[in-house]
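Table S4 entry, SDR family NAD(P)-dependent oxidoreductase.
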Amino acid sequence: MQYYIITGASRGLGKALAEAVLSYPDTKVLGVSRHATIEHDRYQHQPLDLSDMEALQNNITKIFPAWSDADSITLINNAGVLGEIAYVGEQTNEHYNFVFDVNLVAPAMLMNTFLSAYSSLNVPRTVLNISSGAAQRPVDGWGAYCASKAALEMLSQVAQKEQDLRGSGIRIRALAPGVVDTGMQEQIRGADEQSFSEAERFKALHQDDMLAASDEVAKRILNWLSNSPSEKVVARIDTI
Ligand SMILES: NC(=O)c1ccc[n+]([C@@H]2O[C@H](COP(=O)([O-])OP(=O)(O)OC[C@H]3O[C@@H](n4cnc5c(N)ncnc54)[C@H](OP(=O)(O)O)[C@@H]3O)[C@@H](O)[C@H]2O)c1
């Protein structure tokens, strides 16, 4: 059985990834998010708020069971938030906790627990951290989002280096999925120019039908993962 743990599986790219995985035989998905929206006999849901660190600590072992029939195990850290779009200095301080917890601290804890829980297995193991082009360029109004994704990319590179030094064979990748037609893009289009100078550009991308469909992006990502992605740890969808 090929096992996938996917955070943010209730909608957007995470749901598309879960459904794409389930379209193949011999797969099982454990989805982690606040809401459960997938009904499938090979889907199991772990309700969890990834901004609630206490809940995460209390439930984290449930996410990584000992699967004795595993032929492979993949963790996809997909859940992510932009938080309120506003300039640094015009934000609440709590915003930084919220965005960093969901986008960085929770994925780091999940990756850490995955590596520790499955280190002695001999089957292929992969961690895919969903990043963003915003990890590599400053976007006004998205400070915490950009910084959290940049940190997630570096953490992925460090973790891969460590796994290579250990000779574990575990693959860690970070992938920016491009501009995908999801609820996050709706939020971006709703931002005002005062807090986000690129608002008009993102509205135009939508009007001009330039957003990628989440199911297409999901298929491309799974195809890339199954065809042994290159040694490069950080990748962008247009280069895979
Ligand atoms: N869409 C794009 O254009 C784009 C571009 C670059 C990168 N990305 C990245 O792609 C990933 C998926 O984004 P998306 O566009 O699919 O976003 P989305 O449509 O807003 O979906 C976000 C997912 O994350 C989950 N989530 C949010 N807050 C959570 C929390 N506190 N606890 C647990 N789960 C939580 C949501 O589930 P619940 O609400 O049920 O909890 C939902 O399933 C994110 O990492 C995002 O940064 C997206």
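The longest strand covers residues 27-33.
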